[in-house]
Design a protein that fits this description.
This protein has 224 residues and is α/β, with parallel strands linked by helices. It is built from seven helices and 15 strands. The protein has a seven-stranded mixed beta sheet with strand order 1-2-3-4-5-6-7, with helices on one face. The longest helix has 11 residues. It is globular. It starts with a strand and ends with a helix. The relative contact order is 0.15. The site of one zinc ion has 4 residues, from loops.
């Protein structure tokens, strides 16, 4: 794990640059995304290494209901009793345990969604969140397209941005595979909603951008 900015730890959950984030707040920890089935073990280790226990995880915010973000969720909910927050448009997917057919724009996406590996134990959200909602120090920004209820989260004290799968940083910035997105056109139209004046960027997939100058790379890419 490593510090993204004061108040946010980046927790790698898998060897391919997949991350979730632990946000410290006065009343405990907020976890942003979970990861695949093996992620809870990495998350527990990171929580304990920071001098806390899993019981301190009060909230789990899901940027969107895709398997690589939620397969470990049911286990973590059982072990923490944390609240689960997700945008209302992705809540039905979370509760269904898989991405619906209409949730992918391309044949490739719809084909892989048939694999049991991409299904998860259903979870009912404790609370749904909408654009502009506050979750402790985090501000919710609705960025539909990758999924209908995709959100990015702005950590207001530091202006670090957690972008989920709105933007990837695997060997350079990208929007990911169109076939895996619900609607690539809507996704691209959502880029205008992403703040540019940020101090750091945490990606669900890829290495973070740290410092205003490096985060400016996000703005340049969004406005390309
Ligand atoms: Zn995704
Ligand atoms: Zn993802």
């Amino acid at each position: 794990m490593s510090l993204l900015v004061p108040g946010i730890l980046r927790v790698p959950t898998r060897g391919h640059g997949d991350n979730c984030f632990l946000v410290t707040d006065e009343d405990g920890l907020t976890l942003v995304d979970v990861g695949w089935k093996s992620a809870p073990a990495a998350i527990r280790q990171a929580v304990e290494a920071s001098g806390r226990s899993l019981a301190d995880v009060k909230r789990i915010v899901i940027t969107h209901a895709h398997p690589d973000h939620v397969r470990g969720l049911a286990e973590l909910v059982a072990r923490t009793a944390a609240e689960v927050l997700v945008h209302e448009l992705d809540a039905p997917w979370l509760a269904a345990g898989r991405v619906p057919r209409a949730g992918r724009s391309g044949t490739f996406g719809r084909t892989i969604d048939r694999l049991p590996l991409l299904h998860w134990d259903p979870v009912t959200a404790t609370r749904t969140v909408a654009d502009g909602a506050r979750i402790g120090p985090l501000r919710v920004i609705h960025t539909p397209g990758h999924s209908p209820g995709h959100i990015v989260l702005l950590h207001e004290p530091s202006r670090a941005l957690l972008v989920g799968d709105a933007v990837f940083n695997r060997g350079g910035l990208s929007s990911g595979h169109d076939a895996l997105a619900a609607d690539p056109g809507v996704r691209d139209a959502s880029y205008v909603r992403i703040p540019r004046d940020v101090a750091a960027v945490g990606f669900a997939h890829g290495v973070p951008l740290i410092g205003e100058e490096s985060a400016a790379g996000l703005a340049a890419w969004l406005d390309r």
